[in-house]
Structure formats: structure tokens, C-alpha cells
Amino acid sequence: MSALANQVVWITGAGSGIGRAIAVAFAEAGCRVALSGRRPAQLEETAALLPSPPLVVPADVADADQVTAAHHQVVAALGPVDILINNAGVNTPRRHWRNLTPADMEQLVDVNLKGPFLCTLAVLPTMRAQGRGLLIHVVSNAATGIYAVAGPTYTAAKHGARAMSATLNAEEGIHGIRSVCINPGEVETPILDNRPSPVSAADRALMVQPEDIAAAALFAAQLPPRTCMAEMLITPTDNNFHRATARRLAGEA
To answer: Can you list the pairs that 161-165 forms with residues at least 24 positions away whose Cβ atoms lie under 8 Å?
Structure first.
């Protein structure tokens, strides 16, 4: 039996992509899973893929009242949250300074930074009381440097989410709480559809796949409670950000 059997896992952004893959992986590990996201129909599609029926709790993570209500529903139905997976994320085609609008900036900060804070604040009190808990944040390699393709707001919000995870380990480790920051490079998910320039099928095939990130999250969750995998950087082997330079260097050899 999996070491994670019967643990309560609350996953945000569970309607597609990485969130959907994580839901499948943790459900197959025997966890009791709660799915949150803004689109009920997509959550139900994810639910249909799991080996046993999960709890579906639609919510916008950028709305404090909805987060509080969703958390209460999860606890009432499944019990206290053992593992929170902050996966909800968004970007916009109008992402660069030349065309960024206040409304788009606010949405990106709300979902990518405010949302993880709100969900974390919801589960922390009970985790402290129990003396244990795991927080997994799917952030981005945009949190580790400056990549022009990500845009300034997404980059700034993801840097904030990465720092948030680090502060959780600094302050909450004494309560048995672990925080894991997963920083994926390019992943073949629907968020690519919001790129200003279309991404080819050939490029998508070379990217990290959602199930790869799910495997990393599951690995971190299965480590002994005394051990925290504080951060992971996961990139494609044939990395688009380096491909042109690598090919030029190979041609010079």
C-alpha cells in the first residue's frame, strides 16, 4: 500500500494540464482527492479519469471568500488537508510592457501569487495543530531567472511564489510543515495556447509533459516527513531556450 494512502490532497487548477495529471497520480497512490478550479465542466472531466470519485469543489483561487468556502467543503467532506497542491496558473497573450493592461496585470498577480497565498493560509492552522503537512507549489522556471517569453507580470508573480515557498520552510518547518517549489520549464499544457506566437506540434513534443511534473510531485510527497525537497527545476532535455546556441556550437565542433 502507498505511503500516501488515505491522505487528503487538495489540488487547485485541477481541470487540465499539470493539475489533471497530478490528480490522477495522487488518486492512483490511494489519496482522497479534492479538485478545485474555475471551470466545473473541466473538473468533471478530470474526475472521470480517477480510479475513485473525487470531491469536486469549483473555486476561483483569486477570491478569498471562494477559497475559504472551498476549504470548508473539503474539510467537511474528507477531513483536514494533508497535502495542498497550489497548481492554478495563468498567463495572457498581452503580456509584455508594450501591450500589458492593468486588468491583465491584476489577473496574473491574483491567480499566480495571491491564489497560492490564500490557499496556503486556509490550510496552515490545521497543519500546525497536527504537527505535519505538505505544501507543493507548481511555480515556473520563470521564477529562477528572466525569460522574455514569460512577460514581466508572470515573471514577477512567479518570483514571489518561489519566495513564498522558501519562507514557509523557514518559518513552518518547526511545525513539521514542508513546502516544495516545483519550477517547470516548458510543459505541453493548454497555457501554451496563450503564447503571443503559436507553438508548433514539433516543439510541443519535445517539452516536458504534465505527467512528468506529476511524477516529481509524487516523489516529493513520498519522502520521509523529516526530509523536505525544497525546490526542483525541471526542464526539457532538448531545451528550446538553449537549442539554437547548442546547434550553433555543435556545428562549430
So the answer is: 161/86, 161/112, 161/113, 161/116, 161/137, 162/137, 162/231, 164/113, 164/116, 164/117, 164/120, 164/137, 165/135, 165/137, 165/139, 165/230, 165/231
